[in-house]
Specification:
Low-confidence stretches: 345-364
Order of helices and strands: HHHHEHHEHEHEEHEHEHEHEEHEEH
CATH class of one domain: Alpha Beta
Strand content: 15-25%
CATH superfamily of one domain: Response regulator
Largest sheet: 6 strands, parallel
Mean pLDDT: 88
Radius of gyration: 26 Å
Length: 364
């Protein structure tokens, strides 16, 4: 058998000029290492081509060196939503240098989902899990607590939780979109929302209603399952209304792009006849015509932050509430001021201006 020439923790420690113990803490994501030192050690380890011996580490410390992500949505929705690949890429950015393996599962919410979590926890197949798509009164908080594995939640639960949360203010992005459209002159704006059973869908809808009330907007909301097909269905419902909205704020880019296609199939011009905004700023939205105005979130950065928080939790760190920077609105060509004829009262004003009164001769 050839000798194993892979670099060891001792080799990394010598290169970094620190102790083996500190390198071990950094590589295992344990608390007690400053962020700068940890990043330097990870960079040196990557440069040297260091990779962990998972079998040896598992036997020595009694850990699986694996973490789970159970996504409670249908596989079709997951496959079509660009958020999850970007988020998972961020998780892998962290796990790839710390020797962790990501165990990914899709499960129907309910009994099947609970069984999936129990299966991951059995025989310590994973050391921790990331809880995504938080729901109202989420039963998974008590379930995972009882299973005795570390966890991180994406968002802040609406029930007591012993876990670190990593969250982004979704409402801030929706408010930016509504304010942008109101500043352009829109007074009739609709929101194609996500499921109200999911906390982030509920937060975005509440933010839309609040922002619309502040700006005096005529607001309407249609709930969807976040899929492009349901976004198209909601768009048809809005455009079939006796008085269709002049702008639609979508809760993700997939639905916004589907809505853009639906509007164009009807012969509407975007943004002349209808302004559209999305959420997540996925790459394809920048290349459709017209390019999509969208709320930009850093899904990959969110994944990396969640992975770091989970590694800290596995290492024994105290739970905390971590808040990432607010989303930004990226304005592109899918939004513009509404036509004057589409603004209530404006068409009548124009007609009155064009027609001469009985006391005045027509303008030559």
């Amino acid at each position: 058998m050839p000798n194993d020439t892979r670099p060891t923790i001792a080799d990394v420690a010598r290169r970094a000029g620190v102790s083996k113990g500190l390198v071990s803490f950094a590589l295992n994501g344990r608390a007690g290492v400053s962020p700068d030192t940890r990043e330097r050690i990870l960079a040196i380890a990557a440069d040297m081509g260091w990779s962990p011996s998972l079998r040896a580490r598992s036997l020595s410390v009694g850990r699986a060196f694996a973490c789970g992500l159970v996504i409670g949505r249908s596989p079709d929705v997951i496959a079509a939503d660009p958020f999850f690949p970007s988020f998972i890429a961020g998780v892998e950015d962290e796990f790839s240098v710390s020797g962790q393996v990501l165990v990914l599962a899709a499960a129907t919410p309910g009994r099947h989902e609970a069984e999936t979590y129990r299966g991951l926890a059995a025989d310590r197949r994973v050391d921790g899990v990331i809880l995504s798509d938080l729901r109202a009164d989420d039963p998974r908080i008590d379930l995972v607590t009882g299973l005795g594995v570390a966890a991180v939640t994406l968002g802040v639960p609406d029930v007591a939780s012993p876990f670190t949360s990593v969250s982004v203010d979704d409402g801030a992005g929706i408010r930016l979109a509504v304010d942008h459209l109101a500043d352009l002159g829109h007074t009739d704006i609709a929101h194609v929302a996500g499921p109200s059973a999911m906390l982030h869908g509920r937060h975005r809808t509440a933010a839309f209603a609040q922002a619309a009330a502040v700006r005096g907007i005529r607001a309407r909301v249609i709930e969807t399952d976040f899929s492009a097909a349901d976004g198209a269905r909601a768009t048809d419902e809005l455009l079939d209304a006796d008085i269709p909205p002049t702008a639609i704020v979508y809760s993700n880019d997939n639905m916004a792009i589907a809505g853009l296609g639906r509007a164009q199939q009807r012969g509407l011009r975007v943004p002349d006849d209808l302004s559209i905004t999305g959420f997540d700023d996925v790459e394809i939205g920048r290349h459709v015509h017209p390019a999509l105005t969208s709320v930009a979130t850093d899904a990959r950065g969110w994944g990396a932050a969640a992975a770091r928080a989970l590694l800290d939790a596995i290492g024994g760190a105290s739970p905390e509430a971590l808040t990432l920077p607010d989303p930004r609105l990226i304005v592109r060509a899918s939004t513009a001021a509404p036509r004057a004829a589409d603004i209530p009262g404006r068409s009548a004003e124009r007609t009155a201006e064009a027609e001469p009164t009985a006391d005045a001769p027509p303008t030559p």
